[in-house]
Design goal:
This protein is an all-alpha fold and 72 residues long. The protein has helices at 16-29, 33-62, 64-71. The longest helix is centred in the middle third of the chain and has 30 residues, at 33-62. The mean pLDDT is 91.
């Protein structure tokens, strides 16, 4: 039986200027502050994940001969 995923809470300390910018963006876009933060985190993870995968691919290509020899 599959157990539903649980939400975890995270507390962030933001300086007043960042908090105000976040609140302003949420208000202007008609979203809750939490929704804006979740979208930002998701985008960051997607972008960083893509960058890490690209770097790993470059490393694998540049060391393809060594990796092939190690696999023999």
């Amino acid at each position: 039986m599959h157990e539903p995923s649980r939400m975890h809470e995270l507390t962030l300390s933001l300086d007043p200027a960042l908090q105000q910018a976040l609140d302003d963006l949420a208000d202007a876009s008609g979203r809750r502050t939490e929704e804006v933060v979740l979208e930002a985190v998701r985008r960051y993870l997607d972008e960083e994940g893509a960058a890490v995968r690209a770097h790993a691919e470059r490393l694998a290509l540049s060391h393809a001969g060594l990796l092939r020899r190690l696999g023999e």
